[in-house]
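Review form for a predicted model. The reviewer records the input and the model, then writes brief findings.
Reviewer: anonymous (R2)
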Amino acid sequence: MPTYAYRCAQCGKTFEHDERIAEHESKKPACPNCGGHDVVSVPVPVMVKTSRKS
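Model under review:
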């Protein structure tokens, strides 16, 4: 299950939320800080570590 980052438009708090991909497309979570539902997805950098040397 992927973890998505959101920012609340009401209080400005950034938070993470684990959800299925289908849930991500259909509904947004409430802000855990203020309970607001006006949240936007925030891009999160991805880091991949391998055993190979570049």
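Findings: The chain is about 10% helix and 30% strand.
Further findings: The radius of gyration is 14 Å.
Recommendation: see findings above.
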